[in-house]
Structures are given as structure tokens and as C-alpha cells.
Design a protein that fits this description.
Number of helices: 15
Oligomer: single chain
Number of strands: 19
Strand content: 15-25%
Largest sheet: 6 strands, antiparallel
Helix content: 40-55%
Shape: flat
Strand order of the largest sheet: 3-2-1-6-5-4
Amino acid sequence: MEESEELRRLRRSDTIVRTTIQQLGDQSGFPYLQTLVNSLGAGIGCKLSMVGRMLRHDATKVRISAHWERGEREIPDNLIYGLKDTPCEQIARNCLAIFPHALQEQFPKDLMLQELGYVSYAGAPLTDSQGKVIGLIALLDDKPMQEEEMIASLLTLFASGAGKELERQSAESELEENERRLQMLVDLSSDVVWDWDIVTDRLSLSDRLYEILGYGPGAFASTRDAIHTLMHPEDLANHGVWLREYLANGQGSYSHEWRLLANDGRYKWFRSSGTIIRTSQGEPIRMIGVITDVSDAKAAEEERERLISELEQKNAELERFTYTVSHELRSPLVTLSGFVGVLEEDIQAGDADAVAADCHEIMLAVRKMGTLLDNLLELSRLDRVSHPHEDVPLLELVDESLSLLQSRIESAGIEIAINGNLPIIGGDRVRWQQVIQNLLENAVKYRSPENPRIEIGAITDKDRPPTIYVQDNGIGIEPKFQQRVFGLFEKLDPRSEGTGVGLALVQRIVQLQGGRIWLDSLGKGYGSTFYIELPVVDETPVEAE
């Protein structure tokens, strides 16, 4: 009887193995692991079979990579659970673990065993080529396990294949991650990576150069001749002399500066840094290096004296800014301080209505302070925080802003005119909305007392960059004050509402979006027109209804 039972177990074990091998074929990755647990779970007839991977940075936790369940699925995909106080904890120490019965009594702190009704467990460690435990393969059942020797043998066999697959996946994942990081470094780098094969005269450039110069990818060929056509004539002659000398006698690294023509018609400064590779006979065969946009550094150098002369003005602006913030924050603080005392008295008096009213006033003060802090944070983060780049119909921005100002426009009897078709613009939608909203609010605020009118339009002549404008027939601004309105805390009328930040904010947003803004007014009483020059993303304009 023992021999026939032994033969039966061997045949069953052999069937499970053969079936698994046939189903595996040339599978890899998740399908490979899923086939293993499917075959093992169905062959043994347990309630759950699974393969788990230990977390890379926390070996006390396991993420289930693949699992099979008899009947309805109860275990979520990619479940992560801790090993402590579970039957899997022993496996982490590179030990085979079999608990054929009374599982819940042996691990009373493992609540999942009780919740799902598991009473038996068998598991084996998955190791890498260095013998390190990297995961586990396990069986759980809602009835006591039989044939422990067969189960242990199958787990050990399947663990070998699953361990190799997990190690292969880890290596592949690490390789992909390294490649992704390398590409990310290239993509995020502010420099242009280049490689010149001198023998074949083949030049390789990263796409960053197109971006810096404002061209689309592939706008010019990746050749020395193409680069030379963009080089400033003065620099081209000097570059030719320098290159001939360097190829003949240069050794080690170098740094050389020149200008390239950008898509907007202006020249940008670059510093080319690299090194030369020669044969044993000293013949140059290759040059590699980076091209760095140093336009800002050059501009900063040229502007240094001007910035020094403006330092006192900036300090004064900072003082006014600090005063404004402290003044505005003091008001809600005073409110909070006062009502906290009143609230304490009303609580002691048991006056529920008064307590509710006190809490309401406190909350209004808190919200006011929150709004002030949000506005302050928005101003401080303007250069560092941006939203996704979008193609934005200008008409939508205008409609949204007019909707917010509708009551003020109607009460003042302002005529709104949208002149012609408005283009689709590119950039940060939230920032552009701030620009349009600010300009329209400004036009409403300084409207004409008689027959007020605001016009929004676009100039899309082929001979000039696309330009949008907001025009009013209001109080106007004298020419000598027209640059001052964009300064921080500059208010031509100290009695007017606001803090003088609006137009400074508008100008900075426009600059960050790659455009420029200016004001045109004949003077006091002749109205004002704000122009914004920017690129159009789509040639198809959106018509106003």
C-alpha cells in the first residue's frame, strides 16, 4: 500500500512539473510567474498560491508579484504585507517553512489568516545567484495539508525557477532604470552634448540646441556647415583660426565662445567645452564635449553696472513690500486676538449663539490671512512653479475673465468689443488667465466716466510677431510714467485700490512665457492700450460669437 501511495504521489508530482514546463514555453516576466503559481496552486489543490518579491529598500515586507486563488479572488494584485509575526517570516531567514495545520493558533497576530480562513501553509525562499533571499513562493489552504514531502519538493523546484526569474527581472529593471536616468540627465541638462568624428566629419548634437535657439527639432542639419551658417560672422572667422590651430597642436580640454543665430533673429552666446582624441601618431580623430548657453551670463555681465545703480531702488521696493505685508497681516491677527478673548467669555457664559458667531468671525480672519499668505506665496514662486504647457484659445480666457467681471461691467455700463478673430496661444494656461484677468480688471478700474469702452483684439500681420492687446478709453497715462506702471508697488494714484503688484506680476508672467508687454497711451484722458507680443501655436483663429 505504501509503494502504490508513493507511486501515486510521484506520478502526481511529475504531472504538475510536466504540465508547468509545457505551459511555460518561452514565457518570461509576469506571465512566467503567473503560470508557475497557476500550475502549482491548481496541481496541489490549495486555496492560494503566490510568488512575492521582497521590497528593495525594506526586506521585512513583500509585494505579491503573481497569485492564484481557488474560487473567488480575495487577494488584491500587488498587495504589500509585512513578514513579522506571519508564517512567511521564517522564509526570510532562508528556511523552508511548512505548517500543515493549526496555522492560526501558531500565528495569532496574523489577522489575514483568520479573515480568509487559512489553516495550513507551505513556503520556500527565492534566492539570487549570490544566495540572497529576494522573495518567496508559498501555498495556503483552508484545510490541513497532506503530502508534505511532495509539496516541499515541488516548492523547492519551483522556487529555483521563480528565483532566477525575479533576479532577471531585477537586473532588467535596474538596467532600464539606469538608461532612463541617463536619458533624463541628457534631457534635463541645460547643455548641448556633441560628438565630432573628425575622420568622417560627422557631427552628433543633442536636440537641446534646437530648443535653446528656439527652432523645431531637425530645423537645421546636424553638420558643421549648418552650425557655421548660424554663427555670427565675426565669430566664424575667429573660430576657423582657432580650430585649425587646435587640431594641429591642441592637447587636453579647451573652452571657446561664440554666438549663434536664434529663431527670433537674435544672437545667443555659447561656450563650447571639450577635449580632443588623437591616434598614437598624434592625428586628431575625434572631439567630444558640451555647448553651454552663456547668454544669461553675458547679459548679466553687461547689466552689472545697471543693477548696482538700481540696488537702492530694489531695497526701497523691498521695504515697501515688507511694510505692506506686515500691515495687511496685522488686521486679521488683531481680529483673531480680539475674538479669542470674546469667545472665551461666551463659552464660560454658555451662550451657544454667541460662540457660533465668534467662531465665524475667527474663521473669516483666518481665511483672510490665508488668502494674503497665498498671494504672497504666489508672487514668490512665480519664477519657480509652472503648470503644463497647453494650446489655449485666447477667446476662452477672455470669456472667463469677462464672466468674473460681469457684474462690475454691467453696473458701470462698459461696452465690451472683441475685434476680429483671437488666436490660440501656447504656454501656461493658469498664468495666461492671470494676465488677461489683470489687464481687464485694470481697464475696468480706470475706465472713462462717460461711455466707457474696452476692446480686446489681436494683430496677426505676417511681417510682425502675433500681438494681442487690451484697449480702453479711460484716464490714460502720461508717457513719462508708462514704464513705471510695471514696477513693483508702483501706483500713479496712491488713493486707488490695490497694492501696485498687478502689472509687475503681469509683466513677469509674460516674460516667463516668452513674450513681452508694453503700454501705449497719448497721455492723460486719452485711454491706454496694453500690447503683448507672443507666438501663435495654431494658425486657425477662434472667432468671437
